[in-house]
Amino acid sequence: MAVYVYAVTRREHPCRLDGLTGVGPGDPPVRVVESGELRAVVSDVGEEEIRPRRRDLIAHQAVLDRLLADGTPLPLQFGYVAPDDGAVRQVLDERADTYLDALAGVQGCAEYNVKAEQEEGALLRGILADSPRASGLNEEILAGDTDPRLPLELGRLVAGEVERRRSHASAELIRALAPTARAYVVHPPTGEDFLNLSLLVPRDGERSFLDAHTELARDTDSGVRTRVAGPLPPYSFVP
After folding, report:
1. How far apart are CA 89 and CA 164, in angstroms?
2. Most buried residue, 29, 207, 209, 215, by most Cβ within 10 Å?
């Protein structure tokens, strides 16, 4: 029977899975497949396509949260299915060194994700206050000058300055938070965010990370707002 795979752990991880039900219909129990020094956490799944339904996303995350409470697993993204237990053991055997190295790298840590956006009004006000050329162009346009070159020049100037300021803000946020982490990854931002940062934070250093973030959040003059999610399984640090 096909199996849905949630994570890989070291053999000594307790894998307290009692009471957990897995992804897919029928509330399948979650169990362990072992090979050598590694364990894979799995549940049986039928032939139907696994889709990201709310119930299944919650079940997937509940398994990983339980594992994270007792140690750091290597989480798999939602939807990974293997043909059977034998195929899982084969992958554990073939990739044993890779998995063991990765588990050593994340041991005792959790992932925190930081997203940052900047309030547009504060950003534009700052640009107009600091750039005489931008301010002058804006005043000419507001005064009724209909030269079509003016808004084009102002648009190019503002776009370049927005990019420069967001790049600087990203660098400052990374500089402030990275020392609290063992490693970090910068992902492509989405929506209104200009930064999407994942950090691998030691569990005994979480207070330092949160204090550093709180200190950043006190700076409201720049219009930069950050959002933190975590502690999370270290998705961003799985090879």
Report:
1. 50
2. 209
Cut 0.85: pTM above it? no
Q: Which residues pair with 232 in a beta bridge?
A: 111
What is the rounded radius of gyration, in angstroms, for the C-alpha atoms of the chain? 24
In the chain, what are the domains?
3-107 (no CATH), 110-237 (3.30.70.600)
Question: Any alpha helices (H) in the chain, and if so which ranges?
Answer: 54-70, 85-94, 96-106, 120-130, 132-142, 149-177, 206-217
The string of pLDDT tens digits covering residues 56-103 is: 999 999 999 999 999 999 999 998 999 999 999 999 999 999 999 999
Cα–Cα dist 37/39, whole Å:
7
Closest CA to 224 of 193, 197, 189: 193
Q: Is 220 helix (H, G, I), strand (E, B) or coil?
A: coil
41 Cβ neighbours under 8 A, 6+ residues apart: 5, 6, 7, 8, 9, 15, 17, 30, 31, 32, 63, 67, 73
HSE-CB of 81 using CA atoms within 13 angstroms: 16
